[in-house]
Amino acid sequence: MTETDNIIFDTASRIFEDLSTPEVVNAAEEGEWPQALWQAIEESGLTLTWIPEANGGVGASMLDGFAVIKAAGGAALPIPLAETLMAGWLLAKGGLEVGTEPMTVAILDPETSGLSWDGTALSGTALSVPHARNAKRLVTVVDTGNKSQVLEFALTQSENTQLSISSHVNLAGEPWDTVTFDKAVPTRFADLEDGTDASSAEALGALVRCVQSAGAMSAALELTIQYSMERVQFGRPIAKFQALQHSVAAFAGQVAAINAAADSAAEAVAFGDVIDHAAWIEVATAKTRLEEAVNTGAAVAHQVHGAMGFTYEHRLHHLTRRLWSWRDEYGSDAVWSIRLGEEVLQWGAEGLWPSITAVSDPR
Amino acid sequence: MSVTRFRFPYVEMPEVASQLRGEVREFLAEERANGGFVPMADCWASGMSAEFSRKLGQRGWLGMTWDKQYGGHGRTFLERYVVTEEMLAAGAPVMAHWIADRQSGPQIIKNAQPHVRDHIIPRIVAGECFCAIGMSEPNTGSDLASVATKAEKVDGGWKVNGTKLWSTGAHGGDYMITLLRTSPVDTNARHEGLSQFIIDLKSPGVNVRGIADIGGQVHFNETQFEDVFVPDDYVLGEVGGGWKMVVGELALERSGPERFLSSFIVFQEAMKVLVNNPTDKTREVLGQVVAKIKTLRRMSLGIAGLLQEGASPEMEAALVKDMSTNFERELLEKIRSVLPQHALVSLDSLTANLLREGILRVPSSTLRGGTNEVLKGMIARQLGMR
Known about the structure:
The complex is a heterodimer.
Chain A: H1 3-19, H2 22-29, H3 35-44, H4 62-74, H5 81-93, E1 103-105, E2 116-117, E3 122-130, E4 137-144, E5 147-154, E6 163-166, E7 176-184, E8 188-192, H6 198-230, E9 232-233, E10 236-237, H7 242-272, H8 277-305, H9 316-326, H10 333-357
Parallel strand pairs in A: 1-4
Antiparallel strand pairs in A: 2-3, 3-7, 4-5, 5-8, 6-7, 9-10
Chain B: H1 15-33, H2 43-46, H3 50-59, H4 77-90, H5 95-111, H6 114-125, E1 131-134, E2 150-154, E3 157-165, E4 175-181, E5 194-200, E6 206-212, E7 218-231, E8 235-236, H7 242-254, H8 258-261, H9 264-274, H10 280-308, H11 314-338, H12 341-345, H13 350-361, H14 372-382
Parallel strand pairs in B: 1-4
Antiparallel strand pairs in B: 2-3, 3-7, 4-5, 5-8, 6-7
């Protein structure tokens, strides 16, 4: 992140800290939509970060938006801010005007979702659609023949009866719903011109989860260090025990690594404002790298917090449960590592090293 | 959030570094093709070739970042980074000059007497003078302040007695930058009374004995000093100021690409076998190791960027060395887990030989330059836990 992004990150973190209290996060898990929180975020203009001015946005850089998303991850923000940014980015790619209401993004797997799009109506089932029950609009991308299109659906029942939502939650208790389209007619749709397609939408989702996780990992490390210095056992803070110091040092390494990997992918996407092949490789790298970071990070965080951190009352689980869930969303590390591995096979022995160094070549 | 805010800024290679990369690749390909070297694992700590080092000197690839007025090339840290990472990725025999180019040279430029500096630096840059590190001793490993080899003041210089251990490259080196005790231990201030000396390894009383590692190869040494005379002007910096110098030197040691690329050549050769019958397990492993290499490189390059700006990212360097050196072992194990049986057991293939070499070298990666346990302690201190 650049210095500007650090400032944005700090500012956003402060706003989120004040508004996204443990009580608010818990209430959201109980099913209460945090209207006051959403309204404050909406009024701050943050939801329009990725939208060019021509499409009704504020025209900030993509990296600014990623800094906000990282802060949102660290605050376990229980609203679809990241999803609204993603949906807006995809709509703007199609040249469509973007408003400020909460939105979400659906991924329809071409092989398992029963996806069909005839140019007028969409059928198929999308799983794990974040906040579908709370969002006003849903955005998806479909590939047909040689072109890709971005589709927008209204999510209010009165507007669209060919679309049904059934409530589910992810491992973190976030409302990740199933959305079934039955010849559903989009409110708007448009062609995508710059190579953005359905796999770009999925990759953007994967990257967003990595960036959120980087924020959540940093926050969990912060909590862990703080707790280790406060908790006294055997007459001294547990932070003073070498065994614990070494676990936390390993955790810190994972926090550093996932932040570096997520930043690298965010920069690659931000550079061309598109998920081209080079950016896709960085996203695949970050999502693959997320597994070890989360495994180590969440394990050490809980180990250091002891039984206290295992209680619902303690806020650590707002972070660790999200981390465990996010690593699986938009393709788990198993999916992405195989994709990246196929890419590496294409590089071959000769292309291996040049392909690894390509990321730092002059752009 | 400041304590957990790690800095690994994006570094884009300048055009000149990118061009340089092309030149280095061309040179390495040519050298390898005409038998100039056979790639080896852990090449920076096991591939000694004075001839190869001289070729690099002739091309201007040693002492790259050092000021021109001292005989260096006045280039950027990033250009040096390009040259070193290309050498490592190719498994080129860069051991002879490695220590001098990485840490002894900068130390000499900063702290040596001008005439001593002028006597040594241009020869290092030419690839004709090599250095060894003299830190560890038989009873001094991680606890560096416990060095007992001592220098006593005599007329016109110092008399050195004692033994240095694990002195990598001393058998082919001209000088050893040696940490010595110049006044008795003060138990309340153990880091004081230590000084650094430039010792000519051809001086009378110096006895270098090679020590074979677990693979039977001699890369490090026991160096004995028996009444070795060192002239006054070969003291580095202030007498008693050795500790601070050593700490600065270790920071240079810790952050380079050699910490995660020592085994890369094994991976590169194994790819020739792996592309033939790929399974999903192979793909998964390739994805995992490449994701790790790319992430470590991003971090390591970020540190080079910070060094170029004059920052001293000690925390980041310790984090990267700890993770990188663990990765060296993991890389070999992961590659091994997907290589077909014939590639593992054949006795004459480069892949199998490199893998064996790598496995036999890798235990040292988490020891040298500060054990990972010491590094983790440093990290914990920086996090405020100690």
